[in-house]
Amino acid sequence: MSIGKSLSSVRSASAERAGGFPPSAPPSRGRPVSRRAASGRRAEQLAPFVLVAPAVLILVLLRLWPLLLGVNFSFTGDGDGDRDGAMVGFDNYVDLLHDPLFQQALRNVGLLVLLLPVAVAIPGLLATFIYLRVPGHRFYRSVYFFPAVLSPVIVGAIFNLLLSFDGPVNVVLSSVGIGPVDWLGDPDVAMFAVVGVHVWATFGMALVVFLAGFATLDSALLDAARVDGASLAQVIWHVIIPSLSRTIQFVFVTTMIGMLTSMFGLLYVMTSGGPEGSTYLPEYYIWIQQGRMNRPALASAASTVLFVIMLVVGLLQLKLLRRAGRED
Prior knowledge:
There is one protein chain. By secondary structure, the protein is an all-alpha fold. Helix content is 73%, strand content 0%. The chain has 14 helices and no strands.
């Protein structure tokens, strides 16, 4: 009888489960599991901030904080008198606006903005030739990055020899009937010569960026353009430029920043700001005021103006390029 009762109890228990009755709840372990899940979710939420924190700390300590100190220092006075370290308001900025050398530096910044499309178009066209494998693309691929590895001092010394009044360039020009040009001694020509040397020395980096952009280009678009009989100029204008709009925006901004902040070595070696201050740029003016004239507050004011110029020009470039991309 005991065995039958046990079998009947087993059958009844299995019938209750088959009939939909919920089984008895397991021992309560929900609280520890929920706490572990909550702590895991919290760790996942905090992980991005922990990973970004070192980079943000470095930017704040080495970039933002010195920038704020420089802006604050630009409102103090220079010299050994009562004005040294005292707050003078906007006097340094007024002095900048009335300084002919700084005015010339600002005019040269405007010239750089006008020449910027040329500085971007040169590496862009060379990258296009390499990508489309036009005749000579192997030569461009092998030598395009060579100038970028040279020091600005070495580049400046080389072109000082090439562009001297009796140098090889003028010898070639004289042989074809063109009179010698005072490339580095004529105030109307010297800035163009220095900018040309800078573009030659730095276009390799921009070309690498363009080649990276071409890696994302859909080759089917180029094949379709070839089938439709598009010329090289039409392919560049209607296919390549719209497809590389973001790459072009990046190259525009970085090239402009490089022109405003990376030409000091060439200026120092090739012209030293001359002739007649015609090749002054804000960064060279800042070095003169800080290193030679011992006017750090005025140099800080010029640095603040340079930062504002780069910020405004960069934002305007991005806005114009994005508008052109939407129109295309």
